[in-house]
Design goal:
With 170 residues, the chain is α/β, with parallel strands linked by helices. The chain has one domain: Leucine Aminopeptidase, subunit E, domain 1. The protein is 38% helix and 19% strand. The protein is globular and about 40 Å long. Ligand AR6 binds next to strand 2 and helix 1.
Length: 170
């Protein structure tokens, strides 16, 4: 079955979904943007699990393009899937690492049995990846990934990001 892609203009921390994806950094210990919002609204349980991950398998942090799950704390979700997008560099950035964030997050979602997954536009904030290109990579990768996830919901924080995704979907 092919995954259904839906779009929402809004704040990802207000979504109801099985899993909410976090645009994290490799420390897994929080930051600004979506990451800050998820930890603030989800509460300290998420950070506590992230610290446990750092104290065990992810002692050196989570690599760019990888994904790992924790509880969703007080969010309206069962899990947060943390992934680390690549930082955009005008001198050359690797789009396969951004694609990997979506693919790996869906792989983790499949392992968990998640059927609805909400994604932000990974790497398009602090990490500066141009929205048009990041949106195309996001949509193409989700469409090309074999997954049992039924709905992938892109949650776009601003109107322009929503429009860019809408043109690709419709
Ligand atoms: N809901 C949905 N989208 C949001 C929200 C929200 N609440 N807040 C921001 N966005 P960013 P990155 C959008 O910077 O570029 C953090 O410090 C935002 O407008 O959150 O992957 C981490 O710890 C943008 O389009 O993530 C890392 O250090 C998109 O989400 C670093 O930033 C991603 O912006 C990761 O940078």
């Amino acid at each position: 079955m092919t995954v259904r892609i839906t779009l929402v203009h809004g704040d990802i921390t207000e979504q109801h979904a099985d899993a909410i994806v976090n645009a994290a950094n490799s420390s897994l210990l929080g930051g600004g943007g979506v990451d800050g919002a998820i930890h603030r609204r989800g509460g300290p349980e998420i950070l506590a699990e992230c610290r446990k991950l750092r104290a065990s398998y992810y002692g050196r942090g989570l690599g760019t393009g990888q994904a790992v799950a924790t509880t969703a704390g007080r969010l309206n979700a069962r899990w947060v899937i943390h992934t680390v997008g690549p930082v955009y560099q005008a001198s050359g950035s690797d789009p396969s690492l951004l694609a990997s964030c979506y693919r790996e997050s869906l792989r983790v979602a499949d392992e968990l049995g998640a059927r609805t997954v909400a994604f932000p536009a990974i790497s398009t904030g602090v990490y500066r990846w141009p929205m048009d290109d990041a949106a195309r990579i996001a949509v193409e990768t989700v469409r090309a990934t074999d997954t049992a996830v039924e709905e992938v919901r892109f949650v776009l924080f601003d109107e322009r990001a929503y429009q860019v995704f809408a043109e690709l979907i419709h």
